[in-house]
Write a structure and sequence with these properties.
This protein is mainly alpha-helical. 73% of the residues lie in helices and 4% in strands.
């Protein structure tokens, strides 16, 4: 079996597994929505289920289009990029080839983003995005992506051409950029898309600062972001690394949670800080990328001959971008498992720092307001859930109001492998 045939089989299996997981999730939720509602009124429970089913159906089509794109690039597209940039300097060839690859993929994926925002989210009353804001977001993010991609592809092309063990030093460059993006996100990147204003509620601000001091968390301050101009969902987060850290509250969150519930949510986020979860996640991603760069740094020359392209920095980078989704998918169960474990630990920290009952109350409101369906197929949890199922989180926090539903056991029996 040739390398191209082997990669085609691997990618097909990757697509098949993703579609199978979505089909199982749709079937699971379609049955679960007719059973006893959990944490929501019957009408909102049904609405949350229908929203999840709609998004999973779109995900299936997206996955099939992803496969079609893979076939296009592997059978013809990569040769087209190589021919188009045939007589160019290798560094310029890399910049043009990488950007063209990103632009083609973006054009193909854009209709899904539009449909999810202006059809699905609009239908379920989540969307507050206007067409003008959507276009502005796309232009800003697209331009930023192309600028960063141009700089990185030129730098990596130079490294490949001049540095022994290029894959190792290319990995160091990408890893450094990931750290830099995390450092600059709250103060440079995020303000390009949203307006951040200091929290005006002085009483709440004082309570938050007291909470931060208890955890030894130093930040630039507490800010409110105008998230409601895009979406009605609730959220809060700590952004940045080192001295650039800041507390960010969605304006939607302030309107729905009382002070105690809000502090409990922030206590959960502080749990991630105390356990160094951001650094652990960056380290884990670094380890995965290291393996990926090592593999791509040892692609046999014969593979490029099979593809009918030259072994240039440009073609190496395009192949890396083409196959990185499959590579990362292999690690998704591990990443998700570690993330779920971290969420439990952050919940426990919040329950000690604040009050478990306040966190329970906040989580219930978040589920209801965000209309997050509280049940999922075990495979979906295994691969994709970065947070434990909400019912399991509430049970771990000692909430006795969430009883074990026998119908859930029946669903597991019907849908498990």
């Amino acid at each position: 079996m040739s390398m191209i045939e082997l990669l085609s089989v691997i990618f097909f299996l990757y697509v098949l597994i993703k579609v199978y997981i979505s089909v199982m999730q749709i079937g699971f939720v379609a049955r679960a929505k007719h059973m006893n509602p959990v944490l929501m009124t019957p009408s909102r429970y049904m609405k949350a289920a229908n929203y999840l089913i709609s998004t999973e159906r779109v995900k299936i089509v997206e996955t099939l289009i992803e496969y079609a794109l893979f076939v296009f690039w592997l059978s013809w597209g990569i040769r087209w990029l190589d021919t188009l940039t045939w007589n160019l300097d290798p560094i310029l060839q890399a910049v043009i080839a990488v950007n063209l690859f990103l632009i083609v993929n973006y054009i193909v994926e854009l209709p899904f983003s539009i449909y999810k925002t202006f059809v699905i989210d609009e239908r379920f009353k989540f969307n507050n995005m206007t067409p003008d804001l959507f276009i502005s977001d796309q232009l800003k993010s697209g331009l930023m992506t192309l600028v960063i991609a141009s700089i990185l592809s030129a730098a990596i092309a130079w490294i490949i051409m001049h540095v022994p063990m290029w894959w190792f030093f290319s990995f160091l460059l990408i890893f450094a950029v990931i750290v830099l993006v995390n450092l600059l996100y709250p103060t440079v990147i995020a303000p390009m898309f949203n307006k951040f204003t200091p929290l005006e509620n002085e009483e709440l601000s004082a309570k938050i600062k007291e909470l931060l001091e208890k955890s030894g968390f130093e930040s630039e301050g507490v800010f409110v972001v105008d998230a409601s101009k895009r979406d009605s969902r609730l959220n809060a987060y700590f952004g940045g690394l080192g001295k650039s850290k800041r507390v960010v509250l969605f304006d939607t969150l302030l309107n729905k949670l009382n002070d105690k519930e809000l502090l409990a949510v922030l206590g959960h986020e502080l749990g991630h800080f105390k356990h160094h979860d951001i650094y652990k996640n960056i380290g884990m991603l670094g380890g995965i990328l290291f393996v990926g760069f090592y593999i791509f740094g040892h692609i046999p020359t014969g593979f490029f001959m099979e593809l009918g392209v030259r072994e240039t920095p440009a073609m190496l980078m395009v192949l890396f971008m083409l196959l990185i989704s499959v590579f990362l998918f292999l690690f998704m169960p591990i990443i998700s498992f570690v993330s779920r474990k971290n969420e439990y630990e952050a919940d426990r920290y919040a329950s000690r720092l604040c009050n478990a009952s306040d966190l329970v109350s906040a989580l219930k409101k978040l589920v209801d307001e965000n209309q997050s369906f509280p049940k999922a197929h075990p495979l979906t949890i295994f691969f994709y859930y970065s947070h434990p199922p909400i019912v399991e989180r509430l049970k771990a926090l000692g909430d006795k109001s969430v009883a074990v539903d026998k119908s859930d056991e029946a669903l597991k029996g019907e849908c498990s492998l």
